[in-house]
Amino acid sequence: MVSEQSYHEEQRQLERTLKQMREILEYRSKKPRYVGNDVTEQILDEMNEKTKQELKRALNEPYFGRLNFQEEGKAEVQPYYIGKVGVMDHDSNHPIVIDWRAPLASLFYSFNGEEDRTFYEAPDGIVEGSLYLKRNVVIRQQQLLRVVDSFVKGELNLTGADEFLLHKLGDRKDHRLRDIVSTIQQEQNDIIRAPKNTAMIIQGVAGSGKTTVALHRLAYLLYHYRDQLKPERMMIFAPSTMFLDYISAVLPELGVGDIQQRTFEEWALGLLSEEVALSDPASRYYRRFEQPRGVEDGDLKCSSEDGFVTENTASRYKGSIAFKRLLDSYLTCMEEWNTPDRPFEAWENHALSVDTLRRWYEYEYRSYPLYRRKERILARIKRWVESELKAIEDRQRQKDCRKKASQRLRTWSKQWLAQSPSELYRELFLPSKRTPQPMVAVSRQIPEDVRQEMATAFKGKVLEYEDLAPLLYIQFQLFGVEQKQRFDHVVIDEAQDFSPFQVDLMKGLVRENSFTILGDLAQGIHADHGTVDWKQLQELFSEEQTTYHELKQSYRSTMEIIQFANHLLEKTKLAVSKAVPVFRSGEPVQWIHIDPGNKVSILRTWIKQMQKQGYQSMAIVTRTEKGASNIYQDLLENGLETSFIDANRQEYTGGISVIPVYLTKGLEFDAVLLWEVDEHYYRVNEQEAKLLYVGCTRALHQLWIGVGEQPSPLIR
Ligand SMILES: Nc1ncnc2c1ncn2[C@@H]1O[C@H](COP(=O)(O)OP(=O)(O)OP(=O)(O)O)[C@@H](O)[C@H]1O
């Protein structure tokens, strides 16, 4: 904390700032709304409205930081206040509060006091100078609550920044992810402010702030490249609708709207030109996480074999670049097969030669996607027919020739293969009698297991999530991509669950490789279709197009929880760095013995205990969905209302959740009870270690492990 004098100085500054902001708001509110048709006036009116909204938003908490900076060559040390919204004095045009994304504000996050002189990058070049003070200020509802200095020139070893961060991390969490503008750390700041035209791949340990950083990066990019980027052309891909609901507060808090936010599935289904029946998410999760072990009434059987994933497992194969290449060969064969091989004779002695038609197909319209090329050629033939018809003077003969030409054109164009993307996709796995031989030869290269699995899928008329990327790829190759389907920037969160094929597909749509790709291989529980090594994604881009970063510090959980979780990581063979906790100590990881006859009373006692300690969000995490549903029912029958979260859940409401472990990814809870961490639920293999790792790293403050008769060897 700072001296009383500094506190009073900040108190006065706050009063002054609030007064100025209220005056600006009043001035802007006096302007009547423009209702005319003048476009410039309409834009000015919209800007005025936007500024009013921003000011109203900023009034409760106008800023969170202060820098005293002396620019080289200037006599004065200037104080600058940093907030979520930049505010200008409308008379002097002097900044009252600087936007956190402004160049000068970067010093607030990057300056660590190690150097005497510092600099920041302004649009006109580097600005050098000296920093005298870096101060954190906590204001809530226009009241000054705390002032902490994290750097004062001439004083050593200030720990204010750490203290401030720890204070923030110790907060109880509700059901929404929040912004972190006041405590962004240097390694996170580097990612947030990185230039836009690279595919950034970020491996970050659980709780390192990947999702949060991605959202702040979007806000930064929109501020910094406001003339080049449009929010509606930016996209966040997230793993589920419930997760999107969980993160939905951050961008509005940062004053950003209109960015598209979807799951890959939602987005792809919306773009596909044909209806596709996809398996339901619940059955997919069941097959992925429960069925390989065999399930009896919510209990996993010990005796059955684990689902063993290889390169030829259908889902993995369909997400691979090898499969994409095969698809390319298939489409090239199709293109070659479609090369015109006969002349078009509209009527006697009026024909277009094979050479002409080939020239159009192979050279003049080559840049068009296959089916668009066909449309162009047909349209050109029609134009040629019309011009030839003009030379015929006899009306009746002209009519007869037109009819003949039209019939012959229909017949002539039948030489072209014209299947829809889904028909073509089906024929790729199950060639028909009419499939040309060169294409059949390509199909034969598909592993037999995959072909058989696809035959069953086509028979049942239900496709899988992994079929979406290839289907969409075929559609784009045949019909092309519309301008409105392209993106200025794409964020892929939980990218370890994205296949290389999915990322490659997106690459075709994103301008200048402007990607932020974030994930954690240690949480790669969707090994059957995801990415297992970031090199797989790096290889999709040239060396200059991509950068790789690691976030090793974990902010979510206490040291005790991180240490426990790291121990589990050792049981996986993954070459990923272990999480480094911030120095936030809490309760040790605690154990509960589950007496089968007493489950409800154990759960009830735990919930009461957590509530008594003031925790707002709690999770009882089970291995199976049936297990979660049973607990939910038991608690309900005993008068305890909880939220049961299954794969089809759209919203996250916080409170007490009962949830299968594989659905907890991305979420966090004040306290977590991992239920029945027994041998028959969690066995010693990489997949189950990862599942348990995900479950443990959801806890912010307290982690409890419930064990029955035989604790899992993973935690013994
Ligand atoms: N610099 C920071 N200051 C304060 N809190 C932070 C900071 N960075 C991250 N956090 C907090 O840490 C928690 C984890 O953040 P987030 O969910 O973005 O991490 P993640 O890497 O996406 O996690 P996971 O991969 O485990 O789902 C959140 O509560 C977030 O607010």
TrEMBL record:
Write the record's keywords in alphabetical order, separated by commas. ATP-binding, Coiled coil, Helicase, Hydrolase, Nucleotide-binding
Keyword Nucleotide-binding in record: yes
Outline the extent of the UvrD-like helicase ATP-binding domain. Answer: 183-558
Q: Which GO molecular function annotation, any one, does this entry have? A: hydrolase activity
Write out the GO cellular component annotations: cytosol
Q: What processes does the entry annotate via GO biological process terms?
A: recombinational repair
Coiled-coil region list: 4-61
Q: Which domain of life is it from?
A: Bacteria
The positions annotated for binding ATP are G204, V205, A206, G207, S208, G209, K210, T211
Q: Kindly provide the name given to this protein in its UniProt entry.
A: DNA helicase-2/ATP-dependent DNA helicase PcrA
Name the source organism.
Desmospora activa DSM 45169
User: Could you read off the lineage of the organism from its UniProt record?
Assistant: Bacteria, Bacillati, Bacillota, Bacilli, Bacillales
